Amino acid sequence: MTDSAKPNRQFDRRIVEGPLGRAVWRLAWPTMLQNIIGGLQGAIDQAMVGNYVGHTGNAAIGVSMQIFILVIVFVASIFTGMGVLVARFAGAGDHDKVNRSVYQAFIVSLGLAFGVLAPLGYYFAPSLLNLINAAPEVQLEALPYIRIMFVFSFGMLMFFLFSGALRAAGDAKTPMRLGIVMTLLNVVLSVVLIRGLGSIPSFGTQGAAMGTVIASGTVGLAFLYLLASNRLVIQFPRAMSYRPDFGIIRELFRFGLPAGFQGVVMNLGGLLMLRFIGGLTFSAEAQAVYSVGYTQLFSLITWTSVGLMGAASAVAGQNLGAGHPDRSARSTRVAAGVGLGLAGGIGAAFVFVPEALLAVFGMTDGPALVLGRQLLGYLAVSGLFVTVALTFTGALQGTGDTKGPLYISILSQVVVPVGFCFVLQALRGLDASDIWLAIVLGHVTRCVLSIIRFEQGKWRSIEVDIGPARA
């Protein structure tokens, strides 16, 4: 290896050698902070759109993001496969295999962003909005929003790709810093583009999408520059082969595709729930409440849980790569305990001050307030189960068991909640509270099954390798 290809930074060995609680927290808190700040940007978008456009704008963003996430999580499934490889090789201290894995994920992402998401997302957007039974006035606001998100998805994919790679390698602070920059840029752009400023017209709901893609594209390019300039623990050195390596690509899809199908299943369940909501008496208000309560406010729990999920994935994967499977198991339980404490505190706010939380989004009276207050009560309970489920899911995926979470998601995110709603709809018709209860039942099921799957210990024997670099 030439001098230019030597790593400037070493992997953090405290993850595989130091105290587990500190290792989990060291990786979790930057991601939590990044998720909270990034999520606040989404909340700001929703609040501004809710106050300047109305609840139809809130509903438009909510249904659009459900569709966008449904598609992008499958395209981004290679990131999960990449995370498995990076964590395992970082635990073993193999810089070359880490760099090669990330680069192959990058070139595959380029093809998927420009060859799949942009053209197909633009063309099928109207059909996807019809699929979820969105009200006509909601579709009018949602169509330009979702088309912008699909066509310019490259920046967001790059941000998720490089953030996930660095976290799996033990560096959670660099993604946090660039994530904060992206959020601040997004907020400024949203304030200007949603409401207008000076000679810049008001774009309303479209302005929220425009701000998101400009900010994510800018930060995605910044990530690429840092990797190419050898300033990070992961690098794209000049001595590395830049040709596609189909052996690595197969491994990316081997571990990633089950996670991609899992993401599709989970979001398909969400879309089907939106379809049930669309059949309620106050459908537009209920969809807006679902968007604000479940997509935004419940994210106060999922932001922290996803941070712990990423930490559990990296710590479990690295310790397995270093030959310490017992540390992998203990670190997962530590992360779950932290998540329970955080979810309990946030859930208490849902119960005791729901009106104040909903008022931020312009929901101060009428059916929207009543439904929103009701939903938050259910989500306060649901959060306790989803945080544990996410933590154990992260550990399973980080060690290479990506099929187990797929099967669990099919049962817990589709069969249980959708089946529950379908049966009640056939027997007596649905109330909003039935749909909220179905969400809770799904999360309880996912939590229990994820723990059982992890404790079976099949992940301990999963082998990961990509062979030597090609000449």
Overall description:
With 471 residues, the protein is mostly helical. The chain has one domain (19-460). Helix content is 80%, strand content 0%. The protein has helices at residues 14-17, 20-52, 55-75, 77-91, 95-131, 136-151, 154-168, 173-195, 205-228, 246-278, 283-297, 299-321, 325-352, 354-359, 366-398, 403-427, 432-456. Helix 2 (20-52) packs parallel to helix 8 (173-195) and helix 13 packs antiparallel against helix 15. The radius of gyration is 22 Å and the shape is globular.
Query: Radius of gyration, rounded?
Result: 22 Å
Question: What is the straight-line distance between the termini?
Answer: 12 Å
> Any idea what the shape is?
globular
Count of folded domains: 1
Q: What is the count of β-strands?
A: 0
Total helix count? 17
* Share of β-strand residues: under 5%
Poorly predicted sequence stretches spanning 5 or more consecutive residues: 1-5
Structural class: mainly alpha
Series of secondary-structure elements, N-terminal to C-terminal: HHHHHHHHHHHHHHHHH
Blueprint of the fold:
Layout (H helix, E strand, L loop, with lengths): L13 H4 L2 H33 L2 H21 L1 H15 L3 H37 L4 H16 L2 H15 L4 H23 L9 H24 L17 H33 L4 H15 L1 H23 L3 H28 L1 H6 L6 H33 L4 H25 L4 H25 L15
